[in-house]
Structures are given as C-alpha cells and as structure tokens.
Amino acid sequence: MERVHLEQPWLDRLLPQGFPTHTSTLITGPGGSGKPLIEDMIVAAWLRHGGSVVLMSLQYPSHEFIISGLKQLAHLDLTEYAGRSAFIDLDASMKGLVTAADYHLRANLVIPDIWDMAIDQACSMVPDDGPGILVSGSALNLLLFSPSYAKTILARMKKTLGTDKRRTHLFAASTTAKHDMIAELEAAADNLMRSRLLDEPSRLYMEILRMKDTPFLPEEVEIPLAPEQLKAMKEVADQSRKRMIPLISRI
To answer: Cβ distance 251 to 148 under 8 Å?
Structure first.
C-alpha cells in the first residue's frame, strides 16, 4: 500500500509509515474541535507529494475560506498548485450543479445523485497521478439535516467511504448532533480519527482509533496551535451551523 508522509511532527509520530492512499478516513468530534485543521495538514502534505485534491466547501460561504485556512494553518498557497486543486461549493438553494469557474463547481450536495456527479466531475478536472486524487470535505453532518434526503444521502456517503477506492477520501463530521447517523459513517470508513477541544486555555487533541493496513500509535496527542487560532476556528464552526442548518432543513 502506498503511503504519504504528512510532514507534521505530531502526525508523523502517530503515523510513522505515513498516511495510506486509496482508503477512506473520517475525523469525528464535537463541533468546533478543529477537525478541518487536521484535514488541512493532510491536504497540504498530499499536494506537496505531487497529488491532486478536490475540496468540498460545506460549512463555509465559499471555498475562499478553505484557501485562507490552508495558507494560515498549513502554510500552503494553493495558487502554487493551480491545475491540481478543484473546488465544490455547497449551494442548498439549487437543484443540480453548475460550473462556476475553472476548477470550481457549485452543487446541491444534499441530493445523493448530485453528490456523486459533483465529485466525479471535479475529479475529472485534475490529474490522477502521484499518490492520486484526495477528496476532502468537513461538516458532513450538515447534509443530514434535510428531512427529504437525510437517509438517502447518508447511504450515499457510506458507499463513498466504504467502497469507492478509485480515490482517497478524507472527511470530517461533528458528533454534536445526529449521533446515530455519524456512528454509521464511522463504521463505514477505513480509518477513524477523533478530535476534542479543551477550554481555558484552549487546547486541541487528536487520536487515531483505526487505520487500515497501516501501523499507528494508539495515543492521544496535542496539536500545536495557539489559543486564538482555536477560538477563531470554533467561531467559524458556530456561524456555519447557524447559517447552513436552517437552509438544509427546508430541503
């Protein structure tokens, strides 16, 4: 199995032989517990090792927040990887998907068929070489607030995590709500990580619970981030829930 070294001391300590390609990983934990930061670190290492990425913006108003987060937290400038990164912005007000610009789609990812179409189309925009294509997105739990599609989009996400090995999948989901559904996603993923945030002062921790065919250190580590960075991430998560849940709850 091919693996990618993640170039962060705390991640390399947990995964001494690297992060496995063509597997699925789910990061879970309470809302605001730094899950997108962990994704950012893996995405940055992936690109530096010659892979491509598809970045799904579910909880942010636009993918510009992902670009900013990668630059501030992972010290990666996505403009240096033009042609190797594509974006899918969640637009819960539409019925399908549109090409918004080069390497950029807008799609209603709550609808199961659109979920598949958007990922396939975005992946066709970037080269599939090096370690391959990494599809990454956080806040999957938001899609489960749809009264019409919750069960069917859950089944589609479980299929992506469980059986699609054409690419490497890296997703995150809050355990603050929809616990039973999130547990089903946890069971479907090849690899499972968990994060938690302590307050006063803010400190972020992560542990690996499961990793497919890859040795890992089964202990919790602290992620070296300043309290103000953690506070800013939590504020974004809180604002996202307030903005997105009412929209998706009407679908």
So the answer is: yes
